[in-house]
Amino acid sequence: MSDLSIKAALAVIATFAVAPVLAADYVQPPVVIEEPVVVEQPVEFGGWYIRGDVDYHKSKMRGSEYITYGAPCGPGCGGAGGTKSFDKTELKSTFSIGAGVGYQLNRYFRTDLTLDYWSKSKFKGSTSDDGNYGCGSPTIPCQSVDRAKMSALVLLANAYVDLGTWNGLTPYVGAGIGGAHIKWGDLENDANVGYAVHKGSKNWRFAYALMAGASYCLTENTMIDAGYRFSRINGGRMFEYNGAGPGFDKGFNTHEVRAGLRYNFGGASQCAQPETAVYVPEPIYTK
Fold first, then answer.
1. pLDDT tens digits, 205-238
2. Banded model confidence at residue 191, pLDDT cuts 50, 70, 90
């Protein structure tokens, strides 16, 4: 074999021997895939809600009075008489139920319109007369025990400031303004000189309220609400003339312990969870 043939054969063998080594030196660029990114979408606050409430309240009368006339005169006769105040007045505690509709403007501010029915509260009062006001005589003073029942419808437009949310708990403060329809039942006047019934009166009065409490998320749309409300109702006519009268109450200060539920349409309350979007980036080839 010639030297040229030997050299050619060695060249071919060397080429096949080096080829795997060159192939091994070429490495496919690694693929780097980034982790998916979870992006939270902010909740857009603003939506309607409805509410239902129950309460236990105690109303304190700010006083009451009635007009008296000199016996046997009636209204306008000019007899010896005047205006007398009840010696004592008391209203028993009772319950109420209510409902309302409201709107959540943003995370911190909402408003609603509520209507509450106060169940009948028992009234007990007492009066006394030395005989100079047409009841009894100077030698036989007149003393009486008076009983009636009072119920009410309270209509309020309210505004609230929510103070932030922590673990589903949102404290708040609020105020309301509106009116109260007070309905007095007949007043039974049981005196030591006789018995009389005065027809009760009903009328609308100005009212306002101050509130504080907290709500807690039960679901994304439902919240339990508990708090305290102070309401003040103006005075008005209490009963009609029957030998004496009419009578007037001077209004009420009411302390309420309240609890209820709120349902938010669309989850636009503090209970709404932020929406999430998952972003998966394209694979990146490194050099």
1. 999 999 999 999 998 889 999 999 999 999 999 9
2. confident
Higher pLDDT, 132 or 248: 248
Q: Which residues pair with 77 in a beta bridge?
A: none
pLDDT of 40 reads 58
* Per-residue tokens: 226: 């508990």
All structural domains of the chain: 39-267 (2.40.160.20)
**pTM of full prediction above 0.90:** no
- 3-state SS, one letter per residue, for the chain: CCHHHHHHHHHHHHHHHHHHHHHHHCCCCCEECCCCEEEEECCCCCEEEEEEEEEEEEEEECCEEEEECCCCCCCCCCCCCEEEECCEEEECCEEEEEEEEEEECCCCEEEEEEEEEEEEEEEEEEEEECCCCCCCECCECEEEEEEEEEEEEEEEEEEEEECCCECCEEEEEEEEEEEEEEEECCEEEEECCEEEEECECEEEEEEEEEEEEEEEECCCCEEEEEEEEEEEECCEEEECCCCCCCEEECCEEEEEEEEEEEEEHHHCCCCCCCEEEEECCCCEECC
Look up residue 151 and give its amino acid: S
Q: Round to whole Å and give the CA distance between 53 and 225.
A: 8
